[in-house]
Amino acid sequence: MSDRIVVDQLAMVLDDTDPLVAAVRPEQWAAPTPCPEWTVRTLVTHMVAGNRLVAASLGDEPMPEPTDVPPGPPVDPLDSEPAAAFRAAADLVVAAFRRPGALEAQVTVPLGTVPGIVALHLRITEILVHGWDLARATGQATRYRDDIVEQELVFTRGKLGDIPPTRRPFAPPQPVPNDAPAIDRLAACLGRAVTARADPG
Hints:
Elements: H1 3-22, H2 40-58, H3 82-97, E1 106-109, E2 112-115, H4 116-138, H5 146-159, H6 182-189
Antiparallel strand pairs: 1-2
């Protein structure tokens, strides 16, 4: 698989997350999520801020050192148009990964400094799992492609051992049936307690 295809996969995952953000009802923004202490608004803010931070790093703009990154986004970039803010940040990070040399460059992310292709997989994985979080919190169905989810599950399992425990952004893996949907298995791998599905998808 070419690196270009993986960038296209990030674009697909972000496109599939768009409707989840757009469908959040006004009263749901303050609702809890599977991320402890995070509301729906905090979760979406985190995704938007993360896309902006990675895009900035790929554009040679400095990112905060991992130890300086708080356990949630430092600012709320959503304003009154969360769906538009999510879409703008999504377009920004995809364009940044499409720049010549981006996937070979060393990129600073909250986990540390990694090759661009690793940062790309980390971004796909984070959007997938936080999209799952958002869907669970708002009673929606995810529509992510199983082949992309399975790919990132393999990537995640291979990389978990390389991440220092103090820098892991997710909880330890949780049990999940082997025949569970791919997105549930990825969520469980990254610390989510997967109970009976709250959506039909």
